[in-house]
Amino acid sequence: MAGIDEQHSWWTSAGTIRRGMTVLDPDAVPLGTVDHVEGEEIHLADTPNDDARSFILASQVDGIDGDTVLLSRRGDATFGEGALP
After folding, report:
1. Do 34 and 42 form a contact (C-beta atoms < 8 A)?
2. How far apart are CA 56 and CA 70, in angstroms?
3. pTM of the model
4. How far apart are CA 5 and CA 10, in angstroms?
5. pLDDT value at 13 more than 70
6. Are the C-beta atoms of residues 58 and 14 closer than 8 Å to each other?
7. Backbone dihedral angles phi then psi of residue 60, each to the nearest 5 degrees
8. DSSP single-letter state for residue 8
9. Which domains does the chain have, with CATH numbers?
Protein backbone atom coordinates (compact mmCIF):
# COMPACT_ATOMS: atom_id res chain seq x y z
CA MET A 1 0.00 0.00 0.00
CA ALA A 2 1.41 3.35 -0.96
CA GLY A 3 2.15 5.79 1.82
CA ILE A 4 2.33 3.25 4.64
CA ASP A 5 5.59 3.11 6.58
CA GLU A 6 6.44 -0.59 6.43
CA GLN A 7 8.32 -0.43 9.74
CA HIS A 8 5.38 0.99 11.70
CA SER A 9 2.28 -0.21 9.83
CA TRP A 10 1.26 -3.55 8.36
CA TRP A 11 -1.68 -4.40 6.10
CA THR A 12 -3.76 -7.45 7.06
CA SER A 13 -7.08 -8.79 5.81
CA ALA A 14 -8.73 -7.08 8.81
CA GLY A 15 -7.17 -3.72 7.99
CA THR A 16 -3.98 -1.81 8.74
CA ILE A 17 -2.28 -2.65 12.02
CA ARG A 18 0.07 -0.04 13.46
CA ARG A 19 2.77 -0.20 16.10
CA GLY A 20 1.37 0.89 19.48
CA MET A 21 -2.22 -0.23 18.88
CA THR A 22 -3.91 -1.83 21.90
CA VAL A 23 -4.86 -5.49 21.48
CA LEU A 24 -8.04 -6.59 23.28
CA ASP A 25 -9.22 -10.16 23.80
CA PRO A 26 -12.89 -11.02 23.07
CA ASP A 27 -13.84 -9.92 26.61
CA ALA A 28 -12.20 -6.49 26.09
CA VAL A 29 -9.25 -7.35 28.35
CA PRO A 30 -6.02 -5.69 27.14
CA LEU A 31 -3.35 -8.19 26.08
CA GLY A 32 -0.67 -5.65 25.21
CA THR A 33 0.26 -3.32 22.39
CA VAL A 34 1.45 -4.11 18.88
CA ASP A 35 5.24 -4.08 18.58
CA HIS A 36 5.62 -5.49 15.06
CA VAL A 37 4.23 -8.01 12.60
CA GLU A 38 6.19 -10.96 11.18
CA GLY A 39 4.28 -12.94 8.58
CA GLU A 40 1.03 -14.02 10.28
CA GLU A 41 2.29 -13.23 13.81
CA ILE A 42 1.43 -9.96 15.54
CA HIS A 43 4.10 -9.51 18.22
CA LEU A 44 3.09 -7.73 21.41
CA ALA A 45 4.86 -5.38 23.78
CA ASP A 46 3.64 -4.13 27.17
CA THR A 47 1.90 -7.40 28.04
CA PRO A 48 0.14 -7.31 31.45
CA ASN A 49 2.32 -10.07 32.91
CA ASP A 50 5.38 -12.11 32.02
CA ASP A 51 3.31 -15.28 31.49
CA ALA A 52 1.28 -13.76 28.64
CA ARG A 53 2.12 -14.96 25.15
CA SER A 54 4.20 -12.53 23.18
CA PHE A 55 2.28 -12.80 19.90
CA ILE A 56 -1.14 -13.54 18.42
CA LEU A 57 -1.99 -14.82 14.96
CA ALA A 58 -3.45 -12.45 12.38
CA SER A 59 -6.25 -14.99 11.83
CA GLN A 60 -7.45 -14.24 15.39
CA VAL A 61 -8.21 -10.60 14.55
CA ASP A 62 -11.94 -9.90 14.35
CA GLY A 63 -11.59 -6.25 13.47
CA ILE A 64 -9.88 -2.93 14.00
CA ASP A 65 -11.54 0.01 15.71
CA GLY A 66 -9.47 3.19 15.72
CA ASP A 67 -6.29 2.37 17.64
CA THR A 68 -7.59 -0.99 18.91
CA VAL A 69 -7.17 -4.52 17.53
CA LEU A 70 -10.16 -6.67 18.51
CA LEU A 71 -9.74 -10.44 18.72
CA SER A 72 -12.34 -13.03 17.79
CA ARG A 73 -13.67 -15.69 20.14
CA ARG A 74 -13.15 -18.25 17.36
CA GLY A 75 -9.43 -18.38 16.76
CA ASP A 76 -7.17 -21.03 15.36
CA ALA A 77 -7.79 -23.17 18.45
CA THR A 78 -11.21 -24.10 17.04
CA PHE A 79 -10.18 -24.58 13.42
CA GLY A 80 -12.04 -27.51 11.93
CA GLU A 81 -14.67 -27.70 14.68
CA GLY A 82 -18.31 -27.31 13.72
CA ALA A 83 -20.20 -24.19 14.66
CA LEU A 84 -22.61 -24.39 17.55
CA PRO A 85 -26.27 -24.45 16.48
Report:
1. yes
2. 11
3. 0.74
4. 8
5. yes
6. yes
7. -85, -10
8. T
9. 20-74 (2.30.30.240)
